[in-house]
Amino acid sequence: MIRRILLVLLAGAAVCLVPWTVYLAHTLPDRYDTGQWRAAWVGFDVALLLCFAAGAWLGLRRRRAAVPLLSATAALLCCDAWFDVMLGWTSDERWASVALAVFVEIPVAVVLALAARRLLSTAMPQRTVTLRDIELRDDPRYQRVTGELPATAEQVARNTGLQRAEVVECLKTLQDNGFVRRGRKGEWFSLPQDLREPKPEDYTGEARDRVTAFLDAKYENEVALLSWAASHRDEFGPWATAQRTSTRLTEDEFRELDAEYRELINRYCQRRRRPAAGEQELSVRFYAFPPPEAVPS
User: Does residue 156 lie in a domain region?
Assistant: First the structure.
Protein backbone atom coordinates (compact mmCIF):
# COMPACT_ATOMS: atom_id res chain seq x y z
CA MET A 1 0.00 0.00 0.00
CA ILE A 2 2.76 2.45 0.99
CA ARG A 3 4.73 1.57 -2.14
CA ARG A 4 1.67 2.22 -4.31
CA ILE A 5 1.06 5.61 -2.68
CA LEU A 6 4.72 6.54 -3.15
CA LEU A 7 4.63 5.59 -6.82
CA VAL A 8 1.48 7.65 -7.33
CA LEU A 9 3.11 10.65 -5.63
CA LEU A 10 6.23 10.35 -7.77
CA ALA A 11 4.26 10.01 -10.99
CA GLY A 12 1.98 12.90 -9.98
CA ALA A 13 4.94 15.13 -9.18
CA ALA A 14 6.51 14.38 -12.57
CA VAL A 15 3.25 15.24 -14.37
CA CYS A 16 2.70 18.46 -12.38
CA LEU A 17 6.24 19.67 -13.01
CA VAL A 18 5.68 19.72 -16.79
CA PRO A 19 3.24 22.69 -16.87
CA TRP A 20 5.08 24.38 -13.98
CA THR A 21 8.38 24.22 -15.87
CA VAL A 22 6.73 25.59 -19.02
CA TYR A 23 5.19 28.40 -16.97
CA LEU A 24 8.55 29.34 -15.43
CA ALA A 25 10.24 29.25 -18.83
CA HIS A 26 7.81 31.89 -20.12
CA THR A 27 7.53 34.11 -17.03
CA LEU A 28 10.90 34.26 -15.26
CA PRO A 29 13.20 37.14 -16.21
CA ASP A 30 16.74 36.53 -17.44
CA ARG A 31 18.09 38.82 -14.70
CA TYR A 32 16.93 39.23 -11.13
CA ASP A 33 18.44 41.20 -8.24
CA THR A 34 18.08 39.25 -4.99
CA GLY A 35 19.11 39.58 -1.38
CA GLN A 36 20.85 37.06 0.93
CA TRP A 37 23.12 35.97 -1.93
CA ARG A 38 26.04 35.26 0.41
CA ALA A 39 23.90 33.47 2.99
CA ALA A 40 22.36 31.27 0.28
CA TRP A 41 25.70 30.04 -1.08
CA VAL A 42 27.46 29.76 2.28
CA GLY A 43 24.51 27.81 3.67
CA PHE A 44 24.55 25.53 0.64
CA ASP A 45 28.28 24.83 1.04
CA VAL A 46 27.86 24.18 4.78
CA ALA A 47 25.15 21.63 3.98
CA LEU A 48 27.46 20.05 1.38
CA LEU A 49 30.30 19.90 3.89
CA LEU A 50 28.09 18.19 6.49
CA CYS A 51 26.91 15.68 3.90
CA PHE A 52 30.51 14.84 2.97
CA ALA A 53 31.52 14.40 6.63
CA ALA A 54 28.50 12.32 7.59
CA GLY A 55 28.76 10.24 4.42
CA ALA A 56 32.43 9.49 5.10
CA TRP A 57 31.70 8.49 8.71
CA LEU A 58 28.83 6.20 7.77
CA GLY A 59 30.57 4.83 4.68
CA LEU A 60 33.70 3.80 6.59
CA ARG A 61 31.46 1.83 8.94
CA ARG A 62 29.50 0.30 6.05
CA ARG A 63 26.25 1.64 7.45
CA ARG A 64 23.29 1.31 5.09
CA ALA A 65 22.27 4.82 6.15
CA ALA A 66 25.21 6.05 4.05
CA VAL A 67 23.36 5.10 0.85
CA PRO A 68 20.75 7.90 0.87
CA LEU A 69 23.32 10.35 2.25
CA LEU A 70 25.85 9.61 -0.49
CA SER A 71 23.09 9.88 -3.08
CA ALA A 72 21.98 13.24 -1.64
CA THR A 73 25.58 14.50 -1.65
CA ALA A 74 25.93 13.50 -5.31
CA ALA A 75 22.72 15.37 -6.14
CA LEU A 76 23.92 18.48 -4.27
CA LEU A 77 27.20 18.41 -6.22
CA CYS A 78 25.30 18.28 -9.50
CA CYS A 79 23.16 21.21 -8.35
CA ASP A 80 26.31 23.09 -7.34
CA ALA A 81 27.84 22.49 -10.76
CA TRP A 82 24.66 23.59 -12.55
CA PHE A 83 24.22 26.86 -10.67
CA ASP A 84 27.94 27.69 -10.73
CA VAL A 85 27.97 27.42 -14.51
CA MET A 86 24.60 29.00 -15.25
CA LEU A 87 24.79 31.90 -12.77
CA GLY A 88 28.38 32.70 -13.71
CA TRP A 89 28.01 32.33 -17.46
CA THR A 90 28.22 36.06 -18.17
CA SER A 91 31.16 36.62 -15.83
CA ASP A 92 34.88 36.43 -16.59
CA GLU A 93 35.15 33.27 -14.47
CA ARG A 94 32.68 31.18 -16.46
CA TRP A 95 35.33 28.86 -17.91
CA ALA A 96 36.73 28.24 -14.44
CA SER A 97 33.20 27.27 -13.35
CA VAL A 98 32.86 24.95 -16.35
CA ALA A 99 36.22 23.32 -15.64
CA LEU A 100 35.34 22.88 -11.95
CA ALA A 101 32.02 21.29 -12.87
CA VAL A 102 33.43 18.97 -15.56
CA PHE A 103 36.63 17.87 -13.82
CA VAL A 104 35.70 17.98 -10.12
CA GLU A 105 32.05 18.28 -9.13
CA ILE A 106 30.43 15.93 -11.64
CA PRO A 107 33.16 13.22 -11.40
CA VAL A 108 32.97 13.29 -7.59
CA ALA A 109 29.17 13.02 -7.82
CA VAL A 110 29.55 9.94 -10.06
CA VAL A 111 32.02 8.38 -7.59
CA LEU A 112 29.61 8.97 -4.70
CA ALA A 113 26.70 7.47 -6.65
CA LEU A 114 28.80 4.39 -7.45
CA ALA A 115 29.85 4.13 -3.79
CA ALA A 116 26.18 4.18 -2.76
CA ARG A 117 25.45 1.45 -5.29
CA ARG A 118 28.37 -0.59 -3.98
CA LEU A 119 27.09 -0.34 -0.41
CA LEU A 120 23.76 -1.66 -1.61
CA SER A 121 25.35 -4.49 -3.57
CA THR A 122 27.60 -5.59 -0.66
CA ALA A 123 24.58 -6.59 1.39
CA MET A 124 24.61 -10.32 2.02
CA PRO A 125 22.57 -12.19 -0.58
CA GLN A 126 19.31 -13.30 0.99
CA ARG A 127 17.69 -16.57 0.05
CA THR A 128 16.06 -19.66 1.52
CA VAL A 129 18.04 -22.83 2.22
CA THR A 130 17.53 -25.37 -0.57
CA LEU A 131 17.83 -29.14 -0.69
CA ARG A 132 21.17 -28.69 -2.45
CA ASP A 133 22.40 -26.57 0.46
CA ILE A 134 21.39 -29.33 2.86
CA GLU A 135 23.32 -31.87 0.81
CA LEU A 136 26.43 -29.68 0.93
CA ARG A 137 26.12 -29.22 4.70
CA ASP A 138 25.83 -32.97 5.20
CA ASP A 139 29.07 -33.60 3.28
CA PRO A 140 32.02 -33.05 5.70
CA ARG A 141 34.40 -32.32 2.80
CA TYR A 142 32.76 -28.98 2.13
CA GLN A 143 33.04 -27.96 5.77
CA ARG A 144 36.74 -28.86 5.78
CA VAL A 145 37.35 -26.89 2.58
CA THR A 146 35.56 -23.72 3.67
CA GLY A 147 37.28 -23.91 7.07
CA GLU A 148 40.65 -23.30 5.36
CA LEU A 149 39.62 -20.19 3.39
CA PRO A 150 40.94 -17.76 2.32
CA ALA A 151 43.50 -19.92 0.53
CA THR A 152 44.40 -21.35 -2.85
CA ALA A 153 43.24 -24.79 -3.91
CA GLU A 154 46.79 -26.10 -3.38
CA GLN A 155 46.91 -24.74 0.17
CA VAL A 156 43.49 -26.25 0.99
CA ALA A 157 44.59 -29.64 -0.38
CA ARG A 158 47.80 -29.52 1.65
CA ASN A 159 46.04 -28.51 4.89
CA THR A 160 43.12 -30.94 4.62
CA GLY A 161 44.85 -33.96 3.07
CA LEU A 162 42.33 -34.03 0.22
CA GLN A 163 43.38 -34.48 -3.38
CA ARG A 164 43.72 -31.21 -5.32
CA ALA A 165 41.18 -32.34 -7.93
CA GLU A 166 38.72 -33.12 -5.15
CA VAL A 167 39.30 -29.71 -3.59
CA VAL A 168 38.80 -27.93 -6.92
CA GLU A 169 35.56 -29.84 -7.47
CA CYS A 170 34.32 -28.86 -4.01
CA LEU A 171 35.24 -25.21 -4.54
CA LYS A 172 33.48 -25.05 -7.90
CA THR A 173 30.37 -26.61 -6.39
CA LEU A 174 30.45 -24.11 -3.55
CA GLN A 175 30.98 -21.30 -6.06
CA ASP A 176 27.96 -22.41 -8.09
CA ASN A 177 25.87 -22.21 -4.91
CA GLY A 178 27.19 -18.77 -3.91
CA PHE A 179 29.30 -19.84 -0.92
CA VAL A 180 32.77 -18.95 -2.23
CA ARG A 181 34.46 -16.69 -4.76
CA ARG A 182 37.80 -17.00 -6.55
CA GLY A 183 40.07 -13.96 -6.41
CA ARG A 184 42.31 -12.62 -9.14
CA LYS A 185 45.43 -14.26 -7.69
CA GLY A 186 43.88 -17.72 -7.41
CA GLU A 187 42.80 -17.45 -3.78
CA TRP A 188 39.33 -18.54 -2.76
CA PHE A 189 37.23 -16.54 -0.30
CA SER A 190 34.10 -17.42 1.65
CA LEU A 191 31.03 -15.36 0.83
CA PRO A 192 28.58 -14.71 3.69
CA GLN A 193 24.93 -15.26 2.89
CA ASP A 194 21.72 -14.48 4.72
CA LEU A 195 20.15 -17.93 4.57
CA ARG A 196 16.54 -18.22 5.71
CA GLU A 197 15.07 -21.42 7.08
CA PRO A 198 13.12 -23.57 4.62
CA LYS A 199 9.51 -24.38 5.43
CA PRO A 200 8.67 -28.11 5.43
CA GLU A 201 5.14 -27.32 4.20
CA ASP A 202 6.68 -26.08 0.94
CA TYR A 203 7.85 -29.65 0.17
CA THR A 204 6.29 -33.05 -0.21
CA GLY A 205 7.34 -36.65 0.29
CA GLU A 206 11.00 -37.42 0.92
CA ALA A 207 11.99 -33.79 0.35
CA ARG A 208 9.73 -32.70 3.20
CA ASP A 209 11.19 -35.35 5.49
CA ARG A 210 14.69 -34.20 4.54
CA VAL A 211 13.93 -30.57 5.36
CA THR A 212 12.26 -31.50 8.66
CA ALA A 213 15.23 -33.64 9.67
CA PHE A 214 17.58 -30.79 8.75
CA LEU A 215 15.70 -28.31 10.96
CA ASP A 216 15.47 -30.79 13.85
CA ALA A 217 19.20 -31.44 13.69
CA LYS A 218 19.93 -27.73 13.42
CA TYR A 219 18.06 -26.86 16.60
CA GLU A 220 19.48 -29.84 18.45
CA ASN A 221 22.94 -28.51 17.59
CA GLU A 222 21.91 -25.02 18.73
CA VAL A 223 20.72 -26.31 22.10
CA ALA A 224 23.91 -28.36 22.47
CA LEU A 225 26.03 -25.30 21.61
CA LEU A 226 24.26 -23.10 24.16
CA SER A 227 24.53 -25.81 26.81
CA TRP A 228 28.26 -26.10 26.13
CA ALA A 229 28.68 -22.33 26.32
CA ALA A 230 26.80 -22.18 29.62
CA SER A 231 28.97 -24.89 31.15
CA HIS A 232 32.19 -23.17 29.95
CA ARG A 233 31.14 -19.57 30.58
CA ASP A 234 34.07 -18.92 32.93
CA GLU A 235 36.65 -19.92 30.32
CA PHE A 236 36.02 -17.32 27.60
CA GLY A 237 37.65 -14.33 29.27
CA PRO A 238 36.80 -11.14 27.34
CA TRP A 239 35.47 -13.14 24.38
CA ALA A 240 31.90 -13.65 25.54
CA THR A 241 28.88 -11.50 26.14
CA ALA A 242 25.14 -12.02 26.48
CA GLN A 243 22.02 -9.93 26.67
CA ARG A 244 18.56 -11.04 27.65
CA THR A 245 15.47 -8.92 27.84
CA SER A 246 11.73 -8.92 27.28
CA THR A 247 9.75 -6.32 25.39
CA ARG A 248 6.44 -5.77 23.68
CA LEU A 249 6.44 -5.02 19.95
CA THR A 250 4.02 -4.80 17.09
CA GLU A 251 4.66 -7.06 14.11
CA ASP A 252 6.07 -4.12 12.12
CA GLU A 253 8.39 -3.17 15.00
CA PHE A 254 9.51 -6.78 15.28
CA ARG A 255 10.38 -6.86 11.57
CA GLU A 256 12.30 -3.60 12.00
CA LEU A 257 14.28 -5.12 14.88
CA ASP A 258 15.10 -8.16 12.77
CA ALA A 259 16.19 -5.97 9.82
CA GLU A 260 18.45 -3.84 12.03
CA TYR A 261 20.12 -6.91 13.50
CA ARG A 262 20.74 -8.36 10.05
CA GLU A 263 22.24 -5.06 8.90
CA LEU A 264 24.51 -4.98 11.94
CA ILE A 265 25.79 -8.54 11.53
CA ASN A 266 26.20 -7.99 7.79
CA ARG A 267 28.45 -5.01 8.48
CA TYR A 268 30.70 -6.99 10.83
CA CYS A 269 30.79 -10.11 8.64
CA GLN A 270 32.13 -8.06 5.73
CA ARG A 271 34.48 -5.80 7.68
CA ARG A 272 37.55 -7.40 6.09
CA ARG A 273 38.38 -10.21 3.72
CA ARG A 274 41.53 -11.52 5.39
CA PRO A 275 42.28 -12.60 8.96
CA ALA A 276 43.65 -9.89 11.23
CA ALA A 277 46.05 -10.14 14.16
CA GLY A 278 44.28 -10.73 17.44
CA GLU A 279 40.95 -11.76 15.93
CA GLN A 280 38.86 -14.60 17.31
CA GLU A 281 36.13 -16.68 15.70
CA LEU A 282 32.84 -16.14 17.51
CA SER A 283 29.49 -17.90 17.45
CA VAL A 284 26.82 -15.20 17.24
CA ARG A 285 23.13 -15.94 17.73
CA PHE A 286 19.96 -13.88 17.80
CA TYR A 287 16.68 -15.38 18.94
CA ALA A 288 13.40 -13.60 19.57
CA PHE A 289 10.13 -15.41 20.23
CA PRO A 290 7.04 -15.24 22.47
CA PRO A 291 7.46 -16.76 25.96
CA PRO A 292 5.55 -19.99 26.74
CA GLU A 293 2.83 -18.19 28.66
CA ALA A 294 2.11 -15.97 25.63
CA VAL A 295 1.59 -18.86 23.22
CA PRO A 296 -1.94 -20.28 23.04
CA SER A 297 -2.00 -23.94 24.00
Answer: yes
Q: SS3 of 188, please?
A: strand
Residue 25 phi, psi dihedral angles, 5° rounding? -60, -30
Domain containing 165 — which CATH number?
A: 1.10.10.10
Residue 240 located in a structural domain: no
* Structural domain containing residue 190: 124-225
Span 242-297, pLDDT tens digits: 888 999 999 999 999 998 888 788 778 777 767 788 899 899 999 999 998 877 76
Please, which pLDDT band fits residue 123 given cuts at 50, 70 and 90? low
Model pLDDT, residue 122: 58
CA pair distance 279, 47, nearest whole angstrom: 39
162 with 185, same domain: the answer is yes
Specify the DSSP class assigned to residue 273: S
Domains of the chain: total: 2
Give the pTM: 0.58
Q: How far apart are the first and last CA of the chain?
A: 34
pLDDT for the residue 240: 92
Four-point Cα dihedral 270, 275, 280, 282, nearest 10: 30
CA-to-CA separations, 71 to 51, 80, 123, 178, in angstroms, rounded: 10, 14, 17, 29
